[in-house]
Design a protein that fits this description.
This protein is mostly beta strands. Helices cover 6% and strands 46% of the residues.
């Protein structure tokens, strides 16, 4: 594990604000963390000493202002971060546990879908980015062409980040099949998020002995608050060997972005034709 040096400024306390969350007193603490000569400022609010479940409940009760919190098991201290902040470097050094406030089913504002999805398979459970985080990029699990029973696209994973452009470490992928390898990541330009998508699908045919379902996916990235300029985002070469792209999905409304995913996966067919991933839906959150 890499060594990190934590430089404490003014005994870790720069401000002593008299704020209260329920019965707990808060104080602002600023940590400068040096990692490979890179300095990063992390702002945390010490809520007090309590159990891990109490710490998680504090964040849930203040979900408008709390995206993540850290809990130091050794000192039983609960530290709350502002919405969208990431404190993974600090957590690795201090041995704290990062507690996320999870999204609940129904918290999304819109479902994005396309009309050319494959017909085979069953819908898996939806998965979401942590509350306050949104999709900043994606990668795919693809089985390359070979002699028999190609499946091509087996899974899609969205990579999550905060509106402050922090890479937050969480991700979401819903269901997936077993074949293929993960691609490298494709990431949106800075301060933009995934807001719509298009799916390349080979249309199912009873006459074909080797249907593949979905082959590739691409997205558009857009600023969270801007309905104007967007950017196409695809993983090179941008398409698979079978099928064609359909029309683009609707876009997430202004002040929202993709935050969750739900995939339609065909189970393993043993000695019959496998198609793996056939269709996908994405969820928008504000």
């Amino acid at each position: 594990m890499k060594l990190y040096t934590i430089v404490l400024i003014s005994k870790l306390i720069l401000q002593n604000a008299s704020l209260f969350v329920g019965k707990y007193q808060k104080r602002e603490e600023n940590f400068i963390i040096e990692s490979n000569k890179k300095i990063r400022l992390v702002n945390l609010t010490s809520v007090g000493r309590m159990s891990q479940s109490q710490c998680a409940n504090v964040c849930l009760q203040n979900s408008d202002n709390c995206c993540e919190i850290t809990y130091a098991s050794s000192t039983r201290e609960c530290k709350l971060g502002q919405s969208g902040c990431c404190h993974t470097i600090f957590d690795d050094m201090s041995g704290s546990n990062l507690l996320h406030t999870s999204r609940k089913y129904g918290e999304y504002t819109k479902i994005l879908f396309v009309s050319n999805g494959g017909v085979l398979g069953e819908w898996a459970d939806e998965e979401y980015c942590t509350k306050g985080h949104y999709a900043i990029g994606y990668k795919m699990k693809i089985e390359g062409p070979h002699e028999t029973d190609n499946t091509e696209l087996n899974a899609i994973e969205i990579i999550c980040g905060s509106r402050g452009s922090d890479r937050c470490g969480d991700k979401a992928s819903s269901g997936q099949q077993q074949w293929g390898d993960w691609t490298w990541e494709a990431l949106c330009p800075a301060n933009t998020f995934l807001t719509s998508f298009s799916l390349q699908v080979q249309r199912y045919s009873d006459e074909s002995r080797d249907n593949t379902g979905a082959n590739h996916v691409k997205f558009k990235c857009r600023n969270f608050k801007d309905s104007g300029s967007d950017f196409d985002l695809g993983y090179l070469p941008g398409y698979g060997p079978y099928g064609s792209y359909g029309e683009w999905s609707d876009a997430c409304p202004v002040n929202s972005a993709i935050c969750g995913i739900k995939t339609k996966i065909q189970s393993h067919q043993e000695h019959e034709d496998d198609t793996a991933l056939n269709d996908v839906k994405f969820f928008c959150c504000d």
